[in-house]
Amino acid sequence: MNPTASQSSIVSITNVTKDYTLGKVVVPALRGVDLEVHAGEFISIAGPSGSGKTTLLNLIGCVDTATGGVVRVAGQDTKQLTERQLTNLRLNTIGFIFQSFNLVQVLSVFQNVEFPLLLQRKLDKAQRRERVMQLLEQVGLANHAKHRPNELSGGQRQRVAVARALVTRPQLVLADEPTANLDSVTGQNIIDLMKELNQKEGTTFIFSTHDAKVMSHANAVVRLADGKFLDRISAAEASRAMAAGDH
Amino acid sequence: MLQLFLIAFRNLGTHRRRTLLLGGAIASVTALLVILMGLSTGMKESMLRSATTLSTGHVNVAGFYKVTAGQAAPVVTGYPAILEQIRKDVPELDFAVQRGRGWLKVVSETSSIQVGVGGIDIQSEPGLRQVLQIRAGALDGLAEPGTVLLFEKQAKKLNVQVGESVTLAAQTLRGASNTVDARVVAIAADMGMLSDFGIFVPSETLRSLYQFKSDTAGALLLYLKDIQHVPVVQARLRQTLTDAGHTVMDHDPRAFFMKFETVNREAWTGQRLDITNWEDEISFITWTLTALNSLTGVLIFVLMVIIGVGIMNTLWIAIRERTREIGTLRAIGMQRTRVLLMFVFEALLLGLLGTLAGASAGLVLCLAVNAMAVHVPEVVAVFIMSDTLNLAVHPSSIVGAMAFITACTTAISLIPSFLAARLKPVTAMHHIG
């Protein structure tokens, strides 16, 4: 989906800083980052290791809090929300895809995908079943609904994670290096799937990656370096910059 | 919620060895608790059955009569009128009997013993037939005056058989020595401490020995339809007998023979009534129950501490292993309370399964012990008032033991579960290990 299709801002980050304290040393992870993400965008966050990609995603995902600045997600200032409200925001507005899939090993594929719906308590059993099976169809795992995660390949597990992230129909999906643990073909399939869902459902995707191929699918690439916002460029420009060795 | 149970259940299944070890420990403690409770209840039931037949009713209306200020006799004078009033005032009454009470010397040709004596009307004592196991002679022999029932150990010490005579010697209320000859008509199996110091003779023989009138009894033993009514009946009788003009002594929860010193010291003369219950009359041996219950409590406490440390440790390991899972679940929208519940459920399930197995094993063991009629050493028999081990296991005590241990294991799990729930999602998600 084109970013101009909707101009409403789903993520708004203003002068955000994040410091980590390691013993007596304070390590700045983000140093005054500004970022605006509109609904329906498919954005990649790029940068070398230690540039602050994961920290930024954590702040947007409300799993961590900023040291300074303002983080707004779906119009809400995350600093003003209680722990319970933040959890509800994550449950109802944000979907997560993790680098190492992070599925619950003792639950089946169906149960893993259904889990966020159970937490929401909005749908009855039949509606939940329909929603989960529909998503499993979309990610091509309808026949594996009863399998446990350890019976699946890495790519299949990540597809389950994608289905779990999307099952609540969130406005925003955050993916932290979703293809890092996958081979290139499987990684490509996952990105294609995310792109397809972005275009079909209008879900906003923000993902971090090192991979130029993966980056090439993004509407825009936000580049970070040493915890600072470097620039926001197109995927083509990002690829050229990477080819030139400019991270 | 069901999903949380499912996760808890499957996690237990995934870590089978750990679950089996900890579940086994919980099961062992539960089995031990069921067995000890069975032993305690069995002892209590044996005591109740033996005591309420041999020496006390559920409620007793007894008393002391003092001719002079310094000499008391354990008698109730004019008992028929009192009994009539009791029958009117106590609708809970099943039946009542009068017993003579005394302390005398039994002399045979070769030996003598000091014992307490119960004067009974054998025809109106249905309970005695059920409890006494007659080894020689016949209980109905006590219908004749001048007869006596001894217990095995006494007969052995006196070296007498059924049909042989002994002499009963006692002091009358006025201090004169008196004797009667009595023929041994029955020898009963020993019944612990209560049978060590007691014999039975017909009421008439006892009255003759002590030179009591026919309307004098040692105590009126009241047996209720439901033993739960003891406190109510006891309180009511205090009131109604006082209202009827009798002097009723303050409640003193001791056996009658332990009150002589106190009563003899008091300056009054005449008749005073003493209303007691079965627990008061055998209070001198119920310390064994208290001791057993205390021992059970200490043992279970120590074992629960060990189990508690085990459960805490196991949950710590589980939480450490599943820190990333906790982070993920928190990230996708699980509230802290649900994370807490997830781990509490795990401990709850472990507790339920462990206690169920333990209670079943304990029950089977108790039933097996009862079926085998295991004989206990004499010194133990004295206290449990039975020569065989009786483990009384009731459904309520099994459910109680299960609920107690499950509640303990669940409560213990709250600390690590709470700390798991407090983990910040980002910290948990990036946990390594």
Q: Can you offer a commentary on this structure?
A:
- Chain B: Residues 298-425 form the ABC3 transporter permease C-terminal domain.
- Chain B: InterPro entries: ABC3_permease_C, Lipoprotein-release_system.
- The complex is a heterodimer of chains A (247) and B (433).
- Chain A has 247 residues and is of the alpha/beta class.
- Chain A has one domain (3-243): Rossmann fold (3-Layer(aba) Sandwich).
- Chain A has helices spanning 53-60, 83-93, 109-120, 125-138, 154-166, 184-201, 212-215, 235-243, and strands at residues 9-22, 25-38, 42-46, 68-73, 76-77, 94-97, 172-176, 204-209, 220-225, 228-233.
- In chain A, the strands form 2 sheets. Chain A has a 6-stranded mixed sheet with strand order 6-7-8-3-9-10, sandwiched between helices. In chain A, strands 2-1-4-5 form a 4-stranded antiparallel sheet.
- Chain B has 433 residues and is an alpha+beta fold.
- Chain B has 2 domains: 2-49 and 284-429, no CATH class; 58-278, no CATH class.
- Chain B has 16 helices and 13 strands.
- Chain B has helices at residues 2-14, 16-54, 79-89, 126-131, 152-158, 193-196, 203-210, 230-243, 260-265, 278-281, 283-321, 323-331, 336-372, 378-384, 395-422, 425-429; strands at residues 59-68, 71-73, 76-77, 93-107, 112-120, 134-137, 147-151, 165-171, 177-188, 198-202, 216-217, 219-224, 270-277.
- In chain B, strand 4 and strand 5 (112-120) form a beta hairpin.
- In chain B, helix 3 crosses helix 8 and helix 11 (283-321) packs parallel to helix 15.
- The two termini of chain B are 28 Å apart.
- The model of chain B has no long low-confidence stretch (mean pLDDT 87).
- At the A-B interface, helix 2 and helix 3 of A face helix 1, helix 12 and helix 16 of B.
